[in-house]
Amino acid sequence: MRTSILGLLLLISATIFGAERVFNITGRVVDQSGIGLAYVSVELLDAEGKVIDGILSDGDGNFTLGTDLSGDYTLQITVAGARPHQQVVSLTGENTDLGTIVYSGEVTALDDVVVRGETSMITTQIDRRIVEVGRDLVSAGATASEVLNNIPSLNVDQQSGALSLRGNTNVRVFVDGKPSSVPIADLLRQIPSNSIQRVEIITNPSAKYDPDGNSGIVNIVLVKEKRLGYNVNTNLGFTKGNGERYNGSVGGNYNTGNLNLFGNYNHDQGISHMRARMNNETLGLYNLTAMRSASRNHLVKVGFDWFIDDRNALTIYTNQGMRDQMFITPSYLTFNNGNTIVDNSDYDMNMRNQDYSFNYKHTFLKPGHELEVDGIWSIFQTDLYAGFDWLSAVMGVQDEALGTELRYYGQNQDVRNNNRRLRADYTLPVWEKGKFEIGTQYLGDNRTETFLTTQRLPVYGPAGNITDALEAHDIDFSFIRDIYAGYVNLGYQWEKFGMQLGMRIENQVEKLDVLLTGSSDIPSESANIDRNDVYFYPSAFFTYKLTESDQLSLNYSRRVDRPGPWSMSPVRNWQTATARQEGNPNLRPQFTDSYEIGYLKTFGRTGNINASIFYRNVNDFMTQLISVDELNPNIVIMRTENLDNRYAWGAETSWYLRLRDWWSTNGGLNYYVNEMKSVLPDGNFREVVQNQFVARMSNDFTLAKNTRLQLFTMYNGGQQTLQGETLSMFRQDIGIRQNFAGGKGTITARLSDIFNTFYARSANVIPYVQTGSFRWESRTLYVGLQYNFGGKVRTRADKQRNQGEQGGGIGF
Fold first, then answer.
1. Burial class (CB in 10 A: 0-12, 13-18, 19+), 150
2. Fewer C-beta neighbours within 10 Å, C or N terminus of the chain?
């Protein structure tokens, strides 16, 4: 199967490579004294001013453009710090030599510039929304978790760190267009907000992209300096909540024109506090859990861009991340009779991640004709120690020695992830306004985990009392998943109607080995799973321009959520004294057919409004079912199963509007409906239709030339759950920024959650009647200082040499 996919792709590539007929436009740019101008921007523009082709001149001012067009067009030549030179050229469909062109542009003064925008701006393309994060005041000094939580359609659970897109947590996260082996929650906490350039949200990816995640892809593009000369930027910040956090970063680049060296370092550390409350009316129990967390993060990125010539570029970089975190979690249980006991647990976690990446891009003479090859090797490792003193686990145990065995225990967990991805993408313009894409990809995922524990498991007598304790299993498992993929896309744009059709084929090979090391109490167990499957993922996109500023879109794609290794293992895994988890070796992937209708309204340079309706139908829906052990009613068993189909639908709108020269606004309204089904601990089947409404709005005001004020408001509506309901949350943030030293320096202050109303609340009726709340450090005060120095502004040609203005994206 793998050989057939690769052979088919090579055959198609060989067939279409010879179909191109392009002629050259040559010339030489000189100054008024006749000296050739090196590395100036040369562009061919159509009647609307759109770039057809563009390159930089060589060291002597010579240039060569490529096109298959004929007629009158505009040649534009731009030198940094000068006004563009334009002249009309007549093309006849043959090679054209323009001879010597004397540049007549008038030189103007150059000032240092700040590359990043002052405010976030939302733009919409055929398959995605792009949020240019800018230098948002409400995200200053925060992490990627807070940045994404401020973006329409996205939500980050502040307790678990789980990211959801349109109310669904099955989302794929990329960094600079590449996957990471770091778990999503840890990855978002590791990336500082000031290192994010933009966020791309792709709700219905085409066949070109990995089909994982039934709600879509979120791509986080990090800042990378590209300006000529040397450039250095520094940031220092302090955040005060119940605890205190410190953050700092330094980054920069050195760009000679043909070689750009770049790097940055980010560090933050501090202490945070969380608090959870639960009032169980059924059992007459009140529980208060207080968590104190101390963490330290380091993130380093270094690399280079080598512009080999006008048609070839190579980028190589590495990310190195380190995160150390300690948790101390006392839990106080108070009963109706006034008795209080304390359970204690502490965690010590060390995480290390390494990414090594390369990207090579070749641009052919014809505009849009490209070949791109990239790869990444990602390594992630976690070492976790947890210690427990569970006094509540031995309540009523009369034997003191037995109680001690059950009360105190420790756990060691060692996780190693090794991911590889290698892909090649080829794009060929066809006909007059068509595009053909073809590519292949290999994705490898290796995971090993060792779990050691001193836990003793209780044995219950006929009366439900604890009579003995058994030694728990130690666990070793390894998981290997290799995916061999190929895809084709064909698109065409008529005057008003656009279309793209695609198909992706994947050969998925999996191997799982599990060993549970037993004892004199429990025998050893092992399991092995081998699979080899082929899947197809079609996609379709259609657009129609009602007017120049109004566009309708309709798209479809097939997505997949693959079961993880633990949910597939048939070996029983004890988790607590009263619950265990069993894997399901027959578990199948769940597939989603995703449909979306969209409308885009643009207002020139003053903004845009986007509205969409989506529907998702999930086949072989995976969910965790809970049942009671037939041999011991004090133990519940958790097992993931495939159920029948489920559905989800929703409507959303987002906007970016510049209402006045001094006032801009962006935000979104989102409404989601999800059908949820499960078997609960009481054995009853429960079905819930879950509704949720989320609203966000950010308003940015320019108070003076160097002073900005920003207000951010968010409302997260309540929703039904299988056990009860969660209640609504609301927050209001305010930030102010003052620039100085000609814009090189900035002082920022931000107060989050002014009214301290952003925390989670729940009210459950299953399996017990209880209410609860969870508070994190939502209300915080941040003060930061930023300073930039060195370098010159980069020209448009510099952007082209760096593989386009969308570097780091996953272009459509």
1. buried
2. N
DSSP notation for 568-579: H--SEEEEETTE
E strands in 134-177: 154-156, 163-165, 172-175
- pLDDT at 450 exceeding the cut of 70: yes
Q: What is the mean pLDDT of residues 466-491?
A: 86
Name which residue leads in pLDDT, 358 or 40. Answer: 358
Give CA–CA dist 734/138, Å, rounded.
7
Q: Residue 91 CA to chain centroid, in angstroms?
A: 45
CA distance 317 to 450: 31
745-751 and 178-179 beta bridge pairing: unpaired
Sign, CA dihedral 761-763-766-767, equals positive
- What contacts 729, CB < 8 A, 6 or more positions away? 714, 715, 716, 757, 758, 759, 760, 761
Element containing residue 10 per DSSP (H, E): helix 2-17
First to last CA, the chain: 27
Tokens describing residue 363: 């641009």
Strands 408-430 and 370-389: antiparallel
Say which amino acid occupies 734. I
At residue 608, the pLDDT reads: 85
Pick from 603, 605, 498: which is nearest to 549 by CA? Answer: 603
Q: Which amino acid is at 542?
A: F
- Given a cut of 80, is residue 776 above it in pLDDT? yes
Residues 6 or more apart whose CB falls under 8 angstroms from that of 386 comprise 345, 346, 347, 348, 410, 411, 413
Residue 351's pLDDT is: 93
104 has a pLDDT exceeding 70: no
> CA 37 to CA 54: how far, in whole Å?
16
**Residue 531: how many CB atoms within 10 A of its CB?**
12
Give the mean pLDDT of 554-570.
83
| Residues contacting residue 790 through CB under 8 Å, at least 6 positions apart | 112, 229, 230, 231, 232, 252
The single-letter DSSP state of residue 472 is: P
Distance CA 190, CA 779 (A): 20
Torsion-angle region of 756 (φ positive above 0: left; ψ -120 to 50: alpha; else: beta): left
Work out the pLDDT band at 33, boundaries 50, 70, 90.
Answer: low
SS3 334: strand
Name the pairing type of β-strands 229-240 and 781-789. antiparallel
Of the ranges 193-197, 257-261, 497-501, which is most confident?
497-501
Question: For residues 345 and 332, what is the distance between their CA atoms, to the nearest angstrom?
Answer: 12
Query: Hey, what are 107's tokens?
Result: 């030189």
- The pLDDT tens digits for 670-690 are 998 988 766 555 566 777 888
Q: Give the predicted TM-score (pTM) of the model.
A: 0.77
Q: Do 187 and 163 contact (CB within 8 A), yes or no? A: no
Distances (CA, A) of 28 to 363, 532, 748: 21, 58, 48
Burial (CB < 10 A; 0-12, 13-18, 19+), residue 554, is middle
On whether the CB atoms of residues 637 and 629 are closer than 8 A, the answer is yes
Q: Read off the amino acid at residue 220.
A: I
